[in-house]
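Minimal example, chain plus magnesium ion.
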Amino acid sequence: MESVKGTRVISVRTATDLVVLDEAGELIRRGELVVFPTETVYGLGGNALDPEAAAKIYAAKGRPSDNPLIVHVAKNEDIEPLVRAVPQVAVELMERLWPGPLTLVFPARSEVPRRTTGGLDTVAIRMPAHPVALAFIAAAGVPIAGPSANLSGRPSPTTAEHVIADLAGRVAMIIDAGQTGVGVESTVVDITVSPPQILRPGGTTLEELQTVVPEITVDPTTLADRPPALDRVRAPGMKYKHYAPRAEVIVVEGTPEKVAARVAVLYDEYEAAGRRVAIMATAENAASYGERTFAVVGSRQDLGTVAANLFDLLRRFDDQGIEVILAEGVDMVGLGLAVMNRLRKAAGYRIVKA
Ligand code: TXA
Ligand code: MG
């Protein structure tokens, strides 16, 4: 066990490290905060039924308190004390896609603190597909409110090192289970409207959701290539500046060949202007950048690799003192939808069409 600025960092490789998880559960029941791994990103956990724990979460993240928290459960039955109704479509989605990177927005019971729901009368719930997360939630014995465990506005954390950089000294414990798999946050689906609507694209793809709910829609603001009008945003979190490294990000979109050519030209212009610039490259285009500074984020053939490395690479460029990041856009299919949503936000919608 290690301690950073008073935060205990505990490495858990399997869900059978029960002593540690019992201690983590005890901290939660006492109203403390524990960072836990999920299959998407690390979560900043507190007792979802305790308004003071929810207040502590907002304070630790520096997050606006009208931005609601996702509640994490370990079993389907755990949603019953939290929700007023379970529509048939939710039953089907839970059956097919839980545990997994899918958050469902339900009508909330009055017992769910409005501190947790950001004042809304709906509550977002998910069951993470990570054995350590499930064992931790079960050990706590209460539903766990958990936003991504980053400082508000920073890229979400996919390793315990990212969490330590942002939150050491602000939480009681960090459970380190290595790098998370999916790399982008869960897909948020509102099932209180008919047909259901995706409010935030994420780890569960539109295509997967369509196999269960063919008529599902996507909040158009999440697909936009310009900043959405604030009064049209339906997931409160989507209106804040997000996922942003300290560096300036520019997304270059178009066919792979045109993107590679335009990125190279932009790189040379920024370099000539004396800026420290780096390219977030796909494997397919990397060879065309020659001696320029680049890092491969993943492959266009498997956009899951891009999702998995996206936030880590944004943070690594920051650590290297990069001032301008030129990011290749990818196709908005499969996990590419979530990747492009995050990249465009990280760029503050600075998009170059190649
Ligand atoms: O993968 C994830 O979802 C991660 C891990 C830790 O589970 N959590 C996460 O939480 O990304 P957070 O708080 O960073 O993002 C929650 C998103 C926000 O955009 C928020 O506005 C939306 O979900 N949300 C939460 N409750 C909502 C509600 N009742 N209605 C509409 N949107 C809601
Ligand atoms: Mg977040």
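The pocket of magnesium ion (ligand 2) is lined by residues 147-148, 156 (CB under 6 Å). The first strand starts at residue 2 and ends at 4.
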